[in-house]
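Subject: Sanity check before I submit

Could someone independently write out the structure tokens for this chain? I want to compare against mine line by line before I put it in a report. The sequence has 477 residues.
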Amino acid sequence: MKRLLVLWICLLATAAPHASASTQPSTIEGSWEGTLQVGATRLRIVFHLEAVGKGSLSGTMDSPDQGARGIPLSSVGVGSDTLHIEVRVVGGQYAGVLQQGDSVIVGVWSQGGLQLPLTLRRGAAQAVARRPQEPVPPFPYRQEEVSFASKDPDVSLAGTLTLPAANGPVPGVILISGSGPQDRDETVFGHRPFLVLADYLTRRGFAVLRYDDRGVGQSTGSRQEATLTDFVADALGARAFLARRPELDPGRIGFLGHSEGGLVASLATVTLDSVAFVVLLASPGLPGDELLLSQSEALARASGANELSLRRILALNRAVYDAARGGGDSAAVARSVEGIIRSWADSLAPEERAGMGSIDDFIARQRTVITSPWFRSFLNHDPRVVLREIRCPVLAMIGEKDLQVPPSANLPAIRAALTEAGNEHTVVRELPGLNHLFQTARTGLPVEYGSLEETIAPAALQLLGEWLGTVTTSPVR
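---
Independent answer below. Compare away.
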């Protein structure tokens, strides 16, 4: 789950036009860097400001520790000794005062109701994040750039197939990414988890197929109107492609899905008769609305929200989800959601309301997500119904510190559904100390992902590799 309805401090770069307005840009041009303290996590923020005409500034924002760069600034305002920046893409704003001969700006970053001190200093360190697990050539296996058809006739998918050196047909693993537009490496916060997974599994004798999501990279199609059903069609196309490859044993091919990809993997598995296995990495066991409520609560508590704020956040989200799950077209849902959010905003104290920035912009961002076909289908999807139909071996893992798919609520639901199915070939495991990306984590908060050098904990890789080796010793026919 990379889509977070409540944006705490997750800064996700998206395309948007630059805009600017200021009066005295000459003394403030250049790069300014500071550090936010979000709970136990330190998060660097960099603003790049440049003149775009007499008396005007424009620029971008980076969040290096989250792998986000080039986030456009919506407006830049400069007074005699003040700076005000608005970043509508993430619903954030910064207000500061120049000090120490214009070399320091002391101010506050506001986002999602949070207000955090942020002191900026001239210059920006361009430290390159270390990713020691990323494989480098030469590789002891073959890589092939491939393309294949989705079961949706209008979509062609592009990816990378890694093939181990072997004398006979080998087992195969299809990697399915989580929510949001993902490339074949599932690149997130400067990490490439699927690249690391593919390398690890191919070295253990598995062929691995990873592919760009529809509408991403070299894959065709559009994500705009896509739902879980469409992503299942893509996964089925990947399965059909691998089954035709002479290097693979068709009876030993299975799916591995991360986060929402686990929902897709489960749905694809019950559609076919001969899936060898399914791996669910940080995959939900609760219906979509229940999952997002538990996610909101876990993130809010870990971010230090007080009980009053927590109750308000949950009440808002519950009301919005109920509206989105109800009947009616997108326009009707949008009107209902707008009314709910405006009523909620009116109940806030003035300082809390100010921390949200423009209420119209906030509503517009939420409306775009909530009325999308993907979101409405996700809210109404119950993975337990699908899990009760799976008969092949299943490995389900969630990290102890996963705040996006909390294990305390989701693992029991997965375990119960598989038990009801009478499936005796299952392993359901909570991995100590790991977050949603299966990194060894301090807090589990998404703001921490990019600051960690580890991409996937060795313990998670080992469990996965050993389990797959056990369940693929004989083919499914």
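---
OP: Matches mine. For the report I'm noting this point. The longest strand covers residues 41-53.
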